[in-house]
Amino acid sequence: MHPNPEASQRLAKISTHLRPPTLQMEHRSFLGQQNCRAKGGAPGFKVAILGAAGGIGQPLSMLMKMNPLVSLLHLYDVVNSPGVTADVSHMDTGAVVRGFLGQPQLENALTGMDLVIIPAGVPRKPGMTRDDLFKINAGIVTTLCEGVAKCCPNAIVNLISNPVNTTVPIAAEVFKKAGTYDPKRLLGVTTLDVVRANTFVAEVLGIDPREVNVPVVGGHAGITILPLLSQVKPSFSFTSEEISRLTDRIQNGGTEVVEAKAGAGSATLSMAFAAAKFADACMRGLSGDAGVIECAFVASEVTELPFFASKVRLGRSGLEEVCALGPLSEYERTGLEKAKKELAASIHKGVSFIRNS
Ligand SMILES: NC(=O)C1=CN([C@@H]2O[C@H](COP(=O)(O)OP(=O)(O)OC[C@H]3O[C@@H](n4cnc5c(N)ncnc54)[C@H](O)[C@@H]3O)[C@@H](O)[C@H]2O)C=CC1
Ligand SMILES: O=C([O-])CC(=O)C(=O)O
């Protein structure tokens, strides 16, 4: 017998109320409550993460739930999204969280969203290039972007799935086919290259990485990743050996993680951090903050290529300005020519994937 029968009764009531008959039921009952609050129209952005149960998706879901600019967070995956949703939804932050599982729920996951972040797709294993992921990820990105075109054609899309140099052109073609393409709203996420460049340069300079800003242009694979060390802030004059070593490490940062993980995937935590940083910048831009500058892989006229990563200004309509490359060193000019050759082939592959399908 409980020493305090009243307290014991109260406890029994609470635990009956909370006990989940099944995980699905618990998921549903809590989603019901959250839906009520979401209908209240709290100010903030409605964000969907597609691939939310994955290595990137899970920490990214957590980081987006922590972002005060997010009012509603939709977590979609083809597996395990109920568990991730239940878990993240217990965080006592403002965003309401709803989970969506499997293709039949994709449309509900996307309807009404302002920002769609896509980390769905397979990651690399040692010995693979990002291009080796094309076969599987091209189809995944196509399906998801068809959903975006149908259910939230005005949403900003942050595309993470590799190979970014090809998946972004694929997404653009899907949107063109659907008649919803707006180059201002399609952004390939290359923030991790900048995050890495800032970290590695800060190591060399012996300063806090938060004080460093390295523009990284081109694309998001090997030699297409082109750090502009001549434009580093605070300005610093590197030796040619430092430039060559730093460039090599930044270009191969992804492979460094793939090898260290030894078959267990690629960068997930640093990528979630980078994606959350970029999504935050997009939402600040949408909110009207002037002067939000990030690097991203976007439709561009900065070179003769139709897509290119460079500094962009984010604003109320998404991508507001693609910044010029600025003066390049001889080393960077040579790197740029090599990068453009590979990029042209990767972009062409994405465009033909949709046009010839
Ligand atoms: N842009 C960048 O800088 C980076 C990109 N990546 C890329 O991000 C992608 C995801 O990486 P991880 O999270 O590590 O992989 P992961 O395998 O851990 O997670 C991927 C998730 O996508 C889900 N998924 C698969 N097909 C789906 C579909 N049709 N709809 C919705 N979800 C689906 C899976 O169920 C899984 O939960 C990879 O392609 C990887 O190469 C990774 C790091 C950096
Ligand atoms: O290297 C990979 O496959 C994942 C990725 O894009 C990165 O870490 O930059």
In brief:
This protein is of the alpha/beta class and about 350 residues long. It is built from twelve helices and eleven strands. The longest helix has 26 residues, at about 330-355.
Number of helices: 12
Rg, Å, rounded = 22 Å
Low-confidence stretches: 11-36
Please bin the fraction of helical residues.
Answer: 40-55%
Could you name the CATH class of the largest domain? Alpha Beta
The number of strands is 11
> What small molecules are bound in this structure?
1,4-dihydronicotinamide adenine dinucleotide, oxaloacetate ion
Q: Biggest sheet: strands side by side, in what order?
A: 3-2-1-4-5-6
- State the separation between the terminal residues, measured CA to CA: 71 Å
CATH topology of the largest domain: L-2-Hydroxyisocaproate Dehydrogenase, Chain A, domain 2
Give the biggest sheet.
Answer: 6 strands, parallel
Shape: globular
- The CATH superfamily of the largest domain is identified as Lactate dehydrogenase/glycoside hydrolase, family 4, C-terminal
Helix/strand-derived class? alpha/beta
